[in-house]
Amino acid sequence: MPLLTLHLLRLHPSTEPLSLLRSLSSTPSIDIILASQPRYPVIQPTIIDISPLTSQWHLLLLLHSPNNSGIPFPLRSSITQEYKVIVGIPSKLLSTYQARDKKLLEAASEVKLTGSLDEAKRLIKASGQSLELSADLLRFMEEMEGEEGPRPVTMLNLLSFLPEGKPKYYQYGQAFVEVAGKRGGDAKIVGNVVKLPEDQIDSSGGLGREQEEWWNEISIVHYPSLRAFCDMLAGDDYQEINVKYRLAALQDTMLLCTTEYSLAELSAKARL
Questions:
Q1: Per-residue pLDDT reduced to its tens digit, 85-120
Q2: Closest of 56, 55, 87, 241 to residue 158, by C-alpha
Q3: Given this model, what pLDDT does residue 161 score?
Q4: Is residue 272 pLDDT above 60, yes or no?
Q5: Of the candidates 62, 65, 24, which has an alpha carbon nearest to the alpha carbon of residue 190?
Q6: Which residues pair with 36 in a beta bridge?
Q7: CA 107, 7, 60, 140 torsion-angle sign
Q8: pTM listed for this prediction
Q9: Is 253 in contact with 160 (CB distance < 8 Å)?
Q10: Which of 27, 113, 128, 147 could potentially form a cystine with 231 if both were Cys, beta carbons 3.0 to 4.6 Å apart?
């Protein structure tokens, strides 16, 4: 199973995300799997690394690099803060990822909503920490659509399971395929957080940290729009599996809404 590095980056004020991405794109030893702009924290962690993870991030990256080194040293002067997780991604997911991602993006504008969002606006919650529809999330949705129009979003999930939580979360994942799928949602990358190799560094704080005090899995999920994601949260079908499986499985989680950069465009510009 290939090992990749997931990075959340806060950049120096003089550094534009696209500038760093172009430099990475022109680095032969680095393969950028995903590059995305963090936009809105849907769920903040309540146990694991609260202080660093509640920072304002400028860039989300998923990289394949030699020895999981991640960002090359010459580019590190552009970074003021980094959160790094080493994850194992199944080879089959990686080998088909670009084709599947292209297909999802092409189909995004054709996805029809279920109407759950309109019906549930009277049931808006004050907080979205349990992955329910919140007033703040709706406000951000309206602002984003007003400024940019409907566009696909990518959700980063960091997951830490309760002692017996992983089987529950597997059941959630099985049910999620149908519930999210009818709104165009697709978990396009799922991976296990791996035990830190002795010669490598992540944000876990070193080999002394117990695995139950760290993340267990990540998932990266596509939605054709933020409205489609909100439609899912508003649906009784989703909240049933959320309460029955997801909430019962998790010790802690972080859910970050992002919008992706076009890697094809970056690669083309890097060759100029």
A1: 999 999 999 999 999 999 999 999 999 999 888 876
A2: 87
A3: 97
A4: no
A5: 62
A6: 60, 260
A7: positive
A8: 0.93
A9: yes
A10: 113
Q: At what angle do helices 17-25 and 263-271 cross, to 10 degrees?
A: 70
The answer to whether 2 and 89 are in contact (CB under 8 A) is yes
**Residue range 149-160: mean pLDDT, rounded:** 97
At 40-71, the pLDDT tens digits run: 999 999 999 999 999 999 999 999 988 888 89
List the structure tokens of 190. 């799922």
**Residues 83, 57: Cα–Cα separation, whole Å:** 10
CA atoms lying within 13 Å on the CB side of residue 238:
23
* Cβ neighbours for 28, distance < 8 A, ≥ 6 positions apart: none
Alpha helices in the chain (DSSP H): 17-25, 50-53, 91-107, 116-120, 135-148, 165-181, 226-234, 236-241, 247-249, 263-271
Q: What angle do CA 224, 226, 119 make, to 5 degrees?
A: 105
- The set of long-range contacts for 165-169, using a CB threshold of 8 Å and a minimum separation of 24, is 165/248, 165/249, 165/250, 165/251, 166/216, 166/249, 167/249, 168/245, 168/246, 168/248, 168/249, 169/217, 169/245, 169/246, 169/249, 169/250
Q: Which residues contact 252 (CB under 8 A, 6 or more apart)?
A: 45, 46, 47, 48, 160
